[in-house]
Amino acid sequence: MKKPGMRKWNKFFAVMSLALILALTGCGMSGTSGSSSSVPSSTSSAAEESSQETSGPAVKTEKAVSLGKIPKFSGKAYVNIKHGKPDFKKSELKKKSYEHYSDLDSLGRCGTAKACIGKNLMPDGERGSIGSVRPTGWHLIKYDFVSGKYLYNRCHLIGYQLTGENANARNLITGTRFLNIEGMLPFENMTADYIKETGNHVLYKVTPIYKKNNLVASGVHMEAESVEDKGDGISFNIYAYNNQPGVKIDYATGESRATGKNSSSTSDNSASGGSSANVASKGTYVICITTGKFHRPSCPSVKQIKASNKKIYKGKRKVLINDGYVPCKRCCP
Amino acid sequence: MILIACIDDGGGMMFNGRRQSRDSVLTKHIIGITAGKKLWMDKYSEKIFVSEKPGNLMISPDPLTEAGKGDYCFTEDIQPGAYEDRIEMIMLYRWNRAYPSDLLFDIPLEEHGWKVSAARDFAGTSHDKITEEVYMR
To answer: B2-136 adopts what CATH topology?
Structure first.
């Protein structure tokens, strides 16, 4: 049976089980075993995951890779960790499907996502919309030289093709196009095709690694091991960089700028989930002297400004901000 | 020898000491086209063929050296570049997928004068489209 049916059954089972526990013990949720909250690493050295389980066995708090041990990004999408050998314990490798997504931390960031993926968790339909989720550090920003134009993708920690998760905020991070396509997708493809081909299970764990309180992950730590053949088919332990060649990213906020001389960027916040993006250091802006806001020349709000209240400014955005002008929330200049 | 290899979109063959992918339809296809001829491979590749029990398997730690004229040789974990002079024809199977890789198919086909003489697509068990390309020079 494919995932949609299984999920309904799991939810029904979970609700009935909880009702039974409450009836027998009189305990509230706070007393339920394994309900600790998940806090992604507050330092660069560890990322923890919640032990709260809704559809699988309890997962112990674990450490992920330390950023200090990761080589500096050199254009390669991923590097091996521990010679590519995953760090799973024997007892974790069970032939039973489950999936687990950590609770968001106090900053709204994702933690570890872990699943034992079997064919029954894999979706049989096309992916739905995920635009309603706005991961931490999200900016809708385009660069002409980025494949697909958009710098950031809503990156599934565990890819849709593996567990069929759509707009699950606990499974989506702000990731560069490069991370999504070059770093993570190849591993998802390899795992998905292996499961489809063999019918075996794969234990799969992805942890976003944040430096201190950054809103954008520096990268993701991915581990996987096929269960039935003890890693003969699938076995990897890698770190994928959340970088984008040609773009400098401020991981604290998600803001970015092109590093190349001829590179240009535009922010496009007409779509859902848009936010301010102030990449271009210089540009042409329209100031409304009565409201104190500044706009892009193409902003629809500009048409509503009286000519006598309008002022054209060419120069650095930073200067406008320093002068006390506020960026328009509609066009996010 | 007639070389048989599988590659992904980036020309990769293996990652972390493991094949990038496999497909039972392709395995059967290879058994079919090589029937009546010797099919050389190493111990690593034998695993995916052995369940079909083909009678023409020739297992060797160095199959690219041992395969003679007209013999087929299936390689997954040995790069074929060093044996190019011995290759009469290449049957390349493309997964049409991007996988991680750290071992690449190391014959620059076009640069070395290999030309596609035939190509066709077929569906596999776990791959929507596998492309077969036959190269001659």
So the answer is: Dihydrofolate Reductase, subunit A (3.40.430)
Pick left, alpha or beta for residue A172 (phi over 0 → left; psi -120 to 50 → alpha; otherwise beta). Answer: beta
A63 exposure class (CB count in 10 Å sphere: 0-12, 13-18, 19+) = middle
- pTM, rounded to two decimals: 0.76
Cβ contacts of A188 on chain B, cutoff 8 Å:
none
The DSSP call for residue A301 is: G
Q: Would strands A293-295 and A326-327 be described as parallel, antiparallel, or unpaired? A: parallel
| pLDDT on residue A329 | 64
> Inter-chain contact B21–A190, Cβ cutoff 8 Å?
yes
Q: What is the pLDDT of residues A189-218, one digit of tens each?
A: 999 999 999 999 999 999 999 999 999 999
| Residues in B touching A196 (Cβ below 8 Å) | 125-126
The gap from C-alpha A41 to its chain's centroid, in whole angstroms, comes to 15
Name the residue among A197, A235, A238 with its Cβ closest to that of B126: A197
Q: Domain A3-8+36-130+148-244: give its CATH superfamily.
A: Extracellular Endonuclease, subunit A (3.40.570.10)
Establish if B23 touches chain A: CB-CB under 8 angstroms: yes
**Shortest distance, CA B70 to any CA of chain A (angstroms):** 31
Sheet holding B12-15, edge to edge: B18-19, B12-15, B103-104
Q: Does domain A281-333 have CATH number 3.40.30.10?
A: no
pLDDT above 70 coverage of chain A, percent: 72
For residue A130, the one-letter residue type is: I
pLDDT, residue A310, reads 85
Q: Which of B18, B20, B23 sits opposite A235 (nearest CB)?
A: B18
Say yes or no: B22 contacts chain A, CB-CB below 8 A.
yes
- The pLDDT of residue A295: 83
Which has more confidence, A305 or A207? A207
List of chain A residues whose C-beta atoms are within 8 Å of the C-beta of residue B45? none
> Is the confidence at residue B42, as pLDDT, over 60?
yes
Q: Which of A27-41, A116-130, A276-290, B82-96 has the lowest average pLDDT? A: A27-41
With contacts defined as CB-CB under 8 Å, which chain A residues touch B8? 186
Give pLDDT tens digits for A40-61: 433 333 333 333 334 544 444 3
- The residues spanned by each domain of chain A are 3-8+36-130+148-244, 281-333
Nearest to A78 among B23, B95, B100 (CB): B100
Q: How far apart are CA B61 and CA B73, in angstroms?
A: 12
